[in-house]
Structures are given as C-alpha cells and as structure tokens.
Design a protein that fits this description.
mainly beta; globular; 10% helix; two-stranded antiparallel sheet; ten-stranded antiparallel β-barrel; single chain
Length: 182
C-alpha cells in the first residue's frame, strides 16, 4: 500500500517534471516538450462530401453516407490514441501505441462483428502512416495495408488495401476525412 507521504512526494516530483515542460508565466509549452506525433490524428472526423469508396471482387462503389464519423482521443499516455468509430451502426474500437525510439505505431482493433486485427507500421515525419494489419479470421497469407496520407492539418486520405500472398487483390475501402473539431 502506498502511504500518503509517498503519494505527496510523487505528486510533488510530477509537478516539478511538468514545470520543466510548461512555462507557468505565460501559459505556453516550451520547446523541450516531447512531441507526440499521434496528436495530429486526434479529434472528431467526418467523411469529405459524405463519400465512402470500396471495391469488392472488382465491383467499385462510392456510397453516400453522412453518418460515418469517428473520434480519436488521447488515452493515459502521451503516445497512445483510442479511436471510437461509428459507421452508421457498424462500430470499431482501435488502439494505437507509438514507440518513440523506433517510430513504430502498434495497432489493435475490434469491430461489432468481432473482427480482430493486429499490426504495426512506421510513422513518417509528416504524419503519413502505413500499417500492415492481420485479421484473425482472414487467411494466413492475407493482410490489409492501411494507408493514411495527410492533405492538410485538417484533412487526410485513408485507404485499406487487401493483400493475399503479398499481392494486392484489387479490393479496398477508404475515404478522405475532414476534421470536424479538434
């Protein structure tokens, strides 16, 4: 059990660490603040022009759906995000954790249909990201490549491309997303 004295000592130490990064006199964050590259993804997002594209078995469609939104938020650490997606009743939870040393994003997700996925990818300096994801219910040589490309600070393009035996199958889904609020 942690004593009250130890808790206060820890809190005082944490406060001193925070002061190193936060300039109390003018309420600004100093240049020595560790950068969080996942911060760029945080906020509430909606489909640009309400269009969600997909191709399944060579059949392309562009669906108009104004009810596809998602929210990405910080969790307990500066290097983790939790995505809460609602695509008109189809719900997805995604957890990302970022390793600062390797610049790797680790991905874990689940959907309302219990479609579990794990994977990882390297985060580029500009925030672009490619994640290679394996789905537990998919074939052993199948995976999806999730591609995130930033068009501006408030807009990115996302595409999930299906692969089998390291070859794109032609199937994909994705859209351009706009930040509704940060």
């Amino acid at each position: 059990m942690i004593s009250a004295n130890n808790m206060f000592s820890y809190a005082a130490h944490a406060n001193e660490v925070d002061r190193h990064f936060y300039n109390i006199s003018n309420n600004t964050i100093s240049d020595t603040t560790p950068q969080n590259p996942l911060e760029k993804f945080r906020g509430e997002w909606v489909l640009k022009d309400n269009i969600f594209e997909n191709s399944t078995n060579g059949k392309y469609s562009a669906d108009v759906n104004p009810n596809r939104t998602f929210i990405a938020m910080a969790v307990n650490t500066k290097s983790s995000n939790l995505w809460n997606e609602d695509f008109d009743g189809f719900k997805v939870d995604i957890f990302w954790s970022y390793d600062e040393k390797t610049k790797t994003v680790y991905h874990l997700s689940n959907t309302t249909t219990n479609s579990l996925a794990t994977g990882k990818g390297l985060l580029k300096e500009n925030g672009d990201l490619d994640l290679k994801l394996s789905y537990l219910a998919a074939c052993k040589t199948c995976y999806r490549l999730y591609t995130f490309r930033w068009k501006s600070n408030n807009e990115f393009f996302f595409r999930a491309t299906y692969y089998k035996d390291n070859k794109a199958t032609g199937d994909f889904y994705g859209a351009t997303f706009l930040r509704k609020r940060h």
